[in-house]
Amino acid sequence: MADEYEFDQHTAVAPTGETGRFDADVNRAWTVGPKPNGGYLLAIAARAAAADLVEHDSDHTDPLSATAAYLHAPDPGPAQVQTEILRTGRSASHVRASIVQQGRLCVESTFVMGTLEPARESEAWWSDREPFDLPPIDDCVRLTSTGGRNPFQVSIMDRCDVRLDPEVIGFATGQPTGRGELRGWIAFADGRPVDALSLLFFIDAFPPATFDLVSAGWVPTLSLSAYVRANPVPGPLRVSQRAQVVDGPRFDEVCEVWDASDRLVAQATQLAAIRIPEGQTPPRPRR
Amino acid sequence: MADEYEFDQHTAVAPTGETGRFDADVNRAWTVGPKPNGGYLLAIAARAAAADLVEHDSDHTDPLSATAAYLHAPDPGPAQVQTEILRTGRSASHVRASIVQQGRLCVESTFVMGTLEPARESEAWWSDREPFDLPPIDDCVRLTSTGGRNPFQVSIMDRCDVRLDPEVIGFATGQPTGRGELRGWIAFADGRPVDALSLLFFIDAFPPATFDLVSAGWVPTLSLSAYVRANPVPGPLRVSQRAQVVDGPRFDEVCEVWDASDRLVAQATQLAAIRIPEGQTPPRPRR
Description:
The structure is a homodimer.
Chain A: H1 6-10, E1 13-15, E2 21-26, E3 31-32, E4 35-36, H2 38-55, E5 62-70, E6 77-88, E7 93-101, E8 104-114, E9 126-127, E10 141-142, H3 156-159, E11 160-164, E12 181-188, H4 196-202, E13 221-228, E14 237-247, E15 250-258, E16 264-273
Antiparallel strand pairs in A: 1-2, 2-6, 3-4, 5-8, 5-13, 6-7, 7-8, 10-11, 11-12, 12-14, 13-16, 14-15, 15-16
Helix pairs in contact in A: 2-4
């Protein structure tokens, strides 16, 4: 993708001349409060993984899967990505990519990299997942970077255009529906076309699904896994983020991204920590 | 757990005297064909991660989550586990654990380790997942290590007692139901009690869910993630393994493990490669 778009500018990595060492610049534009968004950091790491493979004459430049451990939030500013190719295969290669800042390991990620087919309308051979409908984009509610009940600035909402289904927007006024699911449209604010790399950002751009259950503040990710299933066709993407089980101090949530041709193009799951306020009654499950 | 049980004997790791270096012995008893089972290897890695934390005065000895990349299948025999504590926190610590054999990196895994409450009957604060019923164990069909349509010996089926719901056993006679789901009971064959560690094995002990869709041979895991949600109460566990989307050369499947008190104690997801035989018609999804 040409560097005319901010996502490409801000996820760029530059070879340092040393194998498996890249310079990156964590940009303040992609933060939630003071901390860079996890999906944005994953995209930086994926670009370094791809660059390392290209240096080794591989054409495995698309992320097929990614797992990430967020150890310390890097500050906006210069950082390094250290990559190590763990295995090269015929159809897939494994790469570890670590984001380091001032000698401190901030993000440890492992990628399976491969080569996705060009985007095209295509049905899965078999699927048990069903795409969902949303009201037209203009009838949905855009999330903003400031205002509402955000205790801090959510800068990524200026970088992407998230439009939530009005049915799930109750949390913004302190009235979560209790269904534990947020869904809506997503696109880049500057019109950057969607591709496989951008899905690593989109799977982590929505608010936590627990916002639709309880006002429980910050929910730090313990472990994130993402699968990129296909290059999305041009057009707006639909995202669903749903909580599955809140048990003790942790919960898990599942994210799905569907493209304009009703293809499931990305999936993610994460385990995160949560602190339920004492005496808070759980809403009923959605089933 | 006392070393009277084979799972504990065969997942044992011995400190080498060097920090973060452990000796292990990959036992032939836990293989599928010639290759050690992925969940068994994950349990070995988890024991090394816990041992490293204990050496560093941490009580984070339970796996909360695990991600694994299977790079090369180790042979049965001696191996080393190399661990690195990436972060220690108040309630969780991150550890990378790598299984190495004769200098070759075979499995790269990352654990979030913590301290789970003792097993007890407890309801999740909120859950959108529903436990499922199975026929009584004696009415279910035990999977055996030899015979049937297995092209090779599945030794793990002598280590654990897997009893499939008769409704899903069609694949064994070449008649998959097309629902893409296998479910059944699981326990250790030697009566070892269930605990958090053993869940890392149980989430990968079932046949692939695609067996219930198509006869497509070997389906190598590209990326595996597991969450351990709670210590299971004593008693048999129920496992569901279901395919979600088969698209192009890859599919994803989700595994859930429920304990005798109807608590979801473990979840896993994996992305795996699959080769659909040419001209094979997809069965209808189960919905």
